[in-house]
Amino acid sequence: MPASNMRAIVKARGLDCDAVILDLEDSIAPEQKAAARDQAIVAAAEGGFGSRLLVLRVNGLDTEWGEADLAAAADAGFDAVLLPKVSAPGDLTLARAQLGAVPLWAMIETCAAMLALPAIATEPGLACLVAGTNDLAKEMRCTPGADRVPLLPHLTAIVTAARAYGLIALDGVSNVLADTPELAAECGQGAAFGFDGKTLIHPAQIAPANRAFAPSDARVAWAQAVIAAFALPENADKGAIRVDGEMVERLHLEEAERVVALV
């Protein structure tokens, strides 16, 4: 959300979301950048976000505001800093030099970033890859449409890099601002691809995203059954067992434990 919108920031403290991203980049006009930065720092100092992660999206280091944004964020108490337009590992290295130990999130929204994903994903201090689908589509000169077909290889590549290097992967925003079947389908698509969650731009998008990314009751029941079955003494040394008529291996136990941890 725009860091210049204090009303939205106050409301965010009560939203049913996992993280709040205060934006200093695309949603802020040039003449408002400094004031928005100051307001974001005040919001971080005031706190009140509960268990929600508080993340600051700064301006790029190639802009006149980037360095000041990072300097202000270094000791402000944000849980992470989201760096836009990351195209190479060096972008993260420069940000890390100013931020110290503050975790970095990287917007993957350029063609160069897609080609450099493995190198970007191994940068020290990086915690999350965020798909920047709008900017990526613009760079590619493609028209994603409701099914996002032109972006599918790039979305799966982002998830693959995140899984390979132990990072969080967040799907890009939808421009649909209401709880509609189209938005629900896009959220479900992101969850099916393996994303951990989805970046949102309106409170009305929270409910469909939560429905899509939270494990269903049936999935939780399956996970609990798998965990219980492997916990039986007679299965302690087995690599594969039968659960509800299906063959289940130890790799499924790991997935079951992950699912239960989300509940």
Write structural notes for this entry.
The chain is α/β, with parallel strands linked by helices and 263 residues long. It has two domains: 6-213, Phosphoenolpyruvate-binding domains (TIM Barrel), CATH 3.20.20.60; 217-262, no CATH class. It has twelve helices and nine strands. It has helices spanning 6-12, 33-46, 66-73, 89-99, 111-115, 117-121, 133-140, 152-164, 181-193, 206-213, 217-231, 250-262, and strands spanning 19-23, 53-57, 80-83, 104-108, 126-131, 168-171, 197-198, 240-243, 246-249. It has a seven-stranded parallel β-sheet. Strands 8-9 form a two-stranded antiparallel ribbon. The relative contact order is 0.08. The mean pLDDT is 96.
